[in-house]
Amino acid sequence: MFKHVFDELSRELSGENARNMAGDIWRWDRTCSFSSYYKSARYCRDRLREAGCEDVRIISFPADGKTTYGQLTIQKAWDCADAELTILDPPEHRGRLVSYRDEPYCLAQGSPPTPKKGIEAEVIAIGNAANAKSWKGVRARGKIVLIDTSPRSVHEIAAKRGAAGLITDSMGTNPLVRPTPMDLPDATGWHTLRPQGKCFAFVLSPRQGKALRDLIGKGKPVRLHAKVESRLYNGRSEMVSAVVPARGKNMQEVALIAHLYEPGANDNASGAALCIEIVRAINRLIRQGRLPKPRRKIRVLLTHEFQSLNSYIIARPKEARRIIAAANIDFVGQDQDLCKSALTYQVNPESLPCFIDHYMKEIVGHFKRQFHSPKNPSGPAYYKTTAERFWRNDNIISDPSLGIPSIAFINWPDRFYHTSADTEDKIHPPSIKRVGEIAGTWAYGIASAGLAEAKWLADCVASWSEKNLAEGVERVIEETRTKRESMTKPRNADFTKLFRDALASAEQYIDYLTDRELKALLSVGTLVSPRKAAELREHIIDMDKEIRVTARLWRRRAGRRIRWMARREGVDVREPEKPETLAAEEKRAAKMIPVRKVPGMWFDEKLPDPIRKKLGKLRGKGMPELPHYWVDGKRTLLDICRKTRQERRGGETDVARMIEWAKLMEKAGVIEIIRR
User: Fold this and answer.
1) How confident is the model at residue 246, as a pLDDT?
2) Where are the alpha helices (DSSP H) in 217-354?
3) Residue 593 · residue 638 · CB < 8 Å
4) What is the DSSP string of 43-91?
5) How far apart are CA 446 and CA 459, in angstroms?
6) Is the distance from CB of 309 to CB of 393 less than 8 angstroms?
7) Beta strands of 141-234 (E only): which ranges?
8) Angle 355-371/3-12 helices, nearest 10 degrees?
9) Please, which residues have CB within 8 angstroms of residue 466's CB and are 6 or more apart in sequence?
10) If I label 231, which of 70, 495, 575, 642 is the partner at 20 to 30 A Cα–Cα?
11) What's the pLDDT at 72?
12) Which of 276, 391, 278, 274 is nearest to 344 (CA)?
């Protein structure tokens, strides 16, 4: 179905062109000023027109800090003309520390302006500043405070204490690629103050931060001059939209999504540039007759991450419903050796099964056979790829309350992530081209699919279902083996319970996986017209039978292997298990049906403080991250507990915590609970 498309795109795509466009976008976006964002959007609009796209437009939403779509409020617009931080005293250290003109990362986005002449103030340092207790007894009024954490988490308490402003040298770490801030001693971390700052926040590199702390530690007053020329105003949150036209009247669309407006060249200018390059290549192949026009439009959406995409889906539901599948292309252009990254490809959330996951795996498998062998020195260069489950990004549209299946690509981890060292030279043309081959093939294949391709995709689902069921059984067996090895001085009754629980777990997990795969199979039906639905339905019925037969096969295998394990311990678990008896909390949960009141994503920071703190504690105790994805107005809270248990194999879902979560969400107005 796709190999010809893959080969044609491989010949046409230009990694150099994608990198050059990413560099252009980055030079606008790195300022973090909305006035530059508007220029970035228009640059992308013009490139999409040149690429042969139609219906090219900029869609705007109010960036006023008030307008809300779903539960997400768009931040207020912010611009910075200039900013400087200078040491005045001690005189021997006088000199400029940072300048926005030199490095825009040096000022947190959302920082309010100083008076025109700036301010002069003593600087003091506070360790562990995110903890309110660290501020007790500190005389911060009228002073600039050097902190070791994100200014976003501190600016409100700093303002309450009367601080003139903040300085941070905080830089995130990652044990795999950036164990300590000093691994990038002269880079500056990216920080924001959203929705808007209560006081300005300058950002220093780790080396500069250490030097300033050392200077403060000498005991003499250190005075600084800070000047910020910025403004907060009611502006626009813009997204760029364009389409590769279809050959018929089919209103369905396949979307390629990336976000603009982050200050890194890889994160995320690379994703936006690659989307433009993919549609340029597809349009050229169509013009040259090397590929036919697709049956469905391919839409490019270049967004303000989360904000404008969430707004678009909620504010323009008729347009959004045309999208039957989407691929989120986050930052993807890394030089893998330099950035220490791998291409990560992510599936839908398990609460929204769809054939697009199986199709992506099929394409990536083809890709790996070409680029994934480090033992083939005569072939193309080795390219690291890793499979991951669903992460939240601009694939938030996969939230079942919005209902648009989407996959995602991102290079992760990345040594230079969210720092000023994420520059144009980190983009590697062969790397960005390879992701374009996968994503472009995926999008064009779905956009072009008719009856024959739909049948092939149904076969693809059935084929991958067997692999997924096999992996599921292995997961249960490994869990059982791990639990057995952790048991000390077990009694015969302990073994009996262990293996009976394992048999029940295998049955439940296979049922869960089978249901997921069957729903993914049915989703193929979106690709054919009502006129051809009957013919596809016959094929889907055949594939449905195959999946069910495969599930029964793996159920027998799982039972056989668990009983073998039990017999080695001298236990016979052939006796039937007693019917399940619900505990008191489970009975309560079985009478509660949560209903989503707010579609789309929400951020905890939008919730009232008491609720947010309680949610944090629940998650600290093992609460699932996305239980609301299973809320459909039909499932009981007990059903949702059971679904999340299967979704997060290896982690239990405590029913009492789920009940507490539901009550908190009801109190916050996000869901309502029907009690029966």
Assistant:
1) 97
2) 269-287, 307-315, 317-320, 336-339
3) no
4) HHHHHHHHTT-EEEEEEEEEESS--EETTEEPPPEEEEEEEEEEEEESG
5) 15
6) no
7) 144-147, 165-168, 201-203, 223-233
8) 60
9) 550
10) 70
11) 85
12) 391
Q: What is the pLDDT of residue 376?
A: 62
Q: How far apart are CA 51 and CA 55, in angstroms?
A: 12
Between CA 377 and CA 387, with CA 381 as vertex, the angle to 5 degrees is 120
Using alpha carbons only, give the angle 123, 127, 131 rounded to the nearest 5 degrees.
Answer: 115
How many CB atoms neighbour CB 4 within 10 A? Answer: 11
HSE-CB for 533 with a 13 A CA cutoff: 7
Predicted confidence at residue 560, as pLDDT, reads: 95
Rounded Cα distance between 358 and 350, Å, is: 13
**HSE of 303 in the Cβ direction (CA atoms, 13 Å)?**
25
- DSSP 8-state symbol, 382: P
* DSSP structure class, residue 149: S
Question: Mean pLDDT by 10-residue block, N- to C-terminus, for the chain (676 residues)?
Answer: 94 98 98 98 98 98 92 92 98 97 97 97 96 93 97 94 97 96 98 90 98 95 98 96 94 97 97 98 98 98 93 94 97 94 95 97 90 63 89 90 96 97 96 97 98 98 97 94 87 87 93 98 96 95 98 96 92 71 93 93 79 90 90 96 88 88 94 94
pLDDT given at position 578: 64
Report whether 237 contacts 60 (CB < 8 A). yes
Q: Which residues contact 299 (CB under 8 A, 6 or more apart)?
A: 241, 242, 243, 244, 253, 254, 255, 256, 323
Contact (CB, 8 A) for 55 and 72: no
Q: Any residues with CB less than 8 A from the CB of 647 and at least 6 apart, and which?
A: 350, 351, 624
Q: Give the integer Cα–Cα distance in Å for 208 and 109.
A: 20
Per DSSP, 264 falls in state: B
Q: Write the burial class of residue 21 (CB in 10 Å: 0-12 exposed, 13-18 middle, 19+ buried).
A: buried
Helices 355-371 & 451-486 angle (0-180, nearest 10)? 80
DSSP code for 451? H
- d(CA 344, CA 412) in angstroms, rounded, equals 6
- The predicted pLDDT at position 650 comes to 62
- Vertex 464 angle, CA 461 and 467, to 5°: 150
Whether the bond between 195 and the residue before it is cis, its omega within 30 degrees of 0, is yes
CB 95 within 8 A of CB 103: no
| Closest to 319 (Cα-Cα) out of 397, 385, 386 | 397
Q: What is the pTM of this model?
A: 0.95
Residue 215 parent element (H or E)? helix 206-216
CB 509 within 8 A of CB 649: yes
Compute the Cα dihedral for 132, 133, 136, 138 and give only its sign.
negative
Residue 92's Cβ-count burial label (10 Å; 0-12, 13-18, 19+) is exposed
